[in-house]
Every structure is written in structure tokens, then in C-alpha cells.
């Protein structure tokens, strides 16, 4: 699959006249709980020629490409990515932490990551992750039944929200690191669930036990309460502007 992804990225660059700065795995394969039939969720950040950024009307800033077999691929323009980082959007913060990187321009992540920390806002991230968990919770049956995939769409976001609420730093992407926040008894439970998901199809149904359900409710309540105490402060975007200008002008000089 690595070869297929590399060829796909080269094709994207040729067809759309862009330069891919960074490409990674974003879904369950990056989060640490893939199933045998999990798709490859390829996400990338791309840069367009300087002339593109000097027009009075903005062209599209994302490439949503058709799913091809097991490969789900889409990317964001550099300028859009930086605007989202300025608003502490969790998605690019996760992409830049992915343990599976398919392409990276030397020095790109190293230069951008400190800016992500500079613009991180705990309240924004808590609300983002709680929203994902809440959406997945709607699939929970009255008898506690739930697709195992959906369970992890509750657990990982809640752990990320808890990380942001308690540590006030960018939450790690992978569930292995996030699981440090769980009570020891539930760490074993979640570890077993990860092992179970690694062997089960995405649609496999399980029953959420009472202890895990109680933890879900308690962490949701505590994160909501903590978010209410926090304020979101506007930050000047000069650092991101400078990063953007350096990227596009340096590339134009080559």
C-alpha cells in the first residue's frame, strides 16, 4: 500500500499543479485501533504556485478526491491549514502528530509544530472532542450495544478532551498515549478492546460494560464543567503570516 500511496501523491501533484508538503494517515490506522478492513485515510497539506495566492478571488482550498478501493484521500491548501491552526482546530494538530507519515518536506513539521502550540486553545479543543464523542454516543443502544468502531469514536475523543482539560496542552493523537489518563482497571479493559478490534470487522457489535459507561458519563461532565471556566483569547496571526510568506516565497525562488 505504501507504493500505491506514493504513486497517488505524485499523481495529485501532476494533475492539480500543487506541491504536497506533508501527507499522513489520519484515521484508525493513525489513532491506534485499526481493524482488518479499515480504510487508509490519507490526508495531506499542499502548497500552490505563488501566482495562485496573488489573485483577487480565492480558488478552492481543498482537494476532496474520490475514494479508490481502500484509499480515502483529501488535502488542504497551506493557507487554509494555517487559518485553522490559528483557530486551534484539532484536525491539523492531529495530522502533524500522525505516527504514519507518507511524505514530508524537510523541516516543514519541525517549523510548524511550535506555532501549533502557540495558538492552542484548550476550550476550543475540549468542545471539538466532546462534539465528536456526543455524536458517536447517539448510536449506543438501550441495552449497551454499540459497534466497536463507534465505541472508539467515543473513547479517543473523550480522552483527548480530558487531556486538554487537565493538562492544557495539545492532546496526543494516538489512543495508546491517551489511555494513560484512564483508571488502571479501565486501561486493561481498553487494551483488550483494542486487541479485539484488531481482529474484528468494523461493523462488529459489542456491549459497553457499566464501569466504562460510568467513566464516559463522568469524564463528559467534568470536561464540560472545566470548559466553562476557560476563556478563548484571540491571538495575533503575525507568526503564521510570516511562516506562510516564507513558504511561498522560498518555493518561488527555487
TrEMBL record:
Return the Pfam families for the record.
RlaP
Q: Which domain of life is it from?
A: Bacteria
| Protein name as it appears in the record | Nucleotidyltransferase
Amino acid at each position: 500500500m505504501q507504493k500505491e500511496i506514493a504513486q497517488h501523491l505524485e499523481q495529485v501533484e501532476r494533475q492539480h499543479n500543487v506541491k504536497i508538503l506533508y501527507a499522513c494517515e489520519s484515521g484508525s490506522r493513525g489513532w491506534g485501533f485499526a481493524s482488518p478492513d479499515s480504510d487508509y485515510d490519507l490526508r495531506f497539506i499542499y502548497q500552490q504556485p505563488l501566482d495562485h495566492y496573488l489573485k483577487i478571488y480565492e480558488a478552492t482550498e481543498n482537494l476532496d478526491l474520490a475514494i479508490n478501493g481502500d484509499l480515502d484521500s483529501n488535502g488542504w491548501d497551506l493557507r487554509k491549514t494555517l487559518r485553522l491552526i490559528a483557530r486551534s482546530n484539532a484536525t491539523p494538530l492531529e495530522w502533524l502528530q500522525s505516527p504514519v507519515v507518507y511524505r514530508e518536506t524537510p523541516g516543514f513539521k519541525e517549523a510548524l509544530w511550535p506555532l501549533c502550540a502557540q495558538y492552542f486553545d484548550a476550550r476550543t479543543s475540549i468542545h471539538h472532542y466532546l462534539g465528536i464523542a456526543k455524536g458517536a454516543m447517539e448510536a449506543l443502544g438501550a441495552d449497551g450495544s454499540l459497534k466497536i468502531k463507534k465505541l472508539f469514536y467515543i473513547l479517543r475523543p473523550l480522552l483527548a478532551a480530558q487531556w486538554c482539560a487537565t493538562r492544557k496542552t495539545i492532546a496526543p493523537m494516538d489512543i495508546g498515549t491517551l489511555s494513560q489518563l484512564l483508571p488502571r482497571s479501565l486501561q486493561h479493559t481498553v487494551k483488550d478492546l483494542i486487541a479485539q478490534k484488531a481482529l474484528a470487522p468494523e461493523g462488529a457489535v459489542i456491549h459497553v460494560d457499566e464501569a466504562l459507561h460510568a467513566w464516559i458519563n463522568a469524564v463528559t461532565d467534568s470536561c464540560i464543567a472545566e470548559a466553562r471556566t476557560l476563556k478563548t483569547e484571540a491571538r495575533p496571526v503575525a507568526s503564521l503570516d510570516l511562516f506562510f510568506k516564507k513558504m511561498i516565497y522560498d518555493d518561488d525562488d527555487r
